[in-house]
What we know:
The protein is an alpha+beta fold. It has two domains: about 5-45, no CATH class; about 45-115, Ribosomal Protein S8, Chain: A, domain 1 (2-Layer Sandwich). About 30% of the residues lie in helices and about 25% in strands.
Amino acid sequence: MELTCCHIHFPDSNRNNPLEKSNQVSISGKIEWVERARQQIRMLTPLIFSFELTMKNPVHTPINEKYPIVQMVQDQYNVMVTFRKCSKLFSHNVVVKGSESEWTKVERATGVLIHHLCDIPE
Length: 122
């Protein structure tokens, strides 16, 4: 990273065998800059919130990523929203994914979706 004058090595970018992968990142440089580089890398990691949504009336159109409120939340809060089917009948897991550096946006987006999709007053 140019900002910290550190050398950062993300392993396994050139390995072909998925069974021999390593998940360790190495950072070398002056100790104070290494810590700063580590903090910056951590802020880039994804942050994921999820909640279960049970449909009260399964006859209604299922909620998905194309719903207007979902589109608005994705655009306004810079998050990605996905729906995954649960093992429970008529239930979905709603997954809200954003960046650690924008954790307040991810938290707010999740709250907005819970209030709108679960009919909970704000």
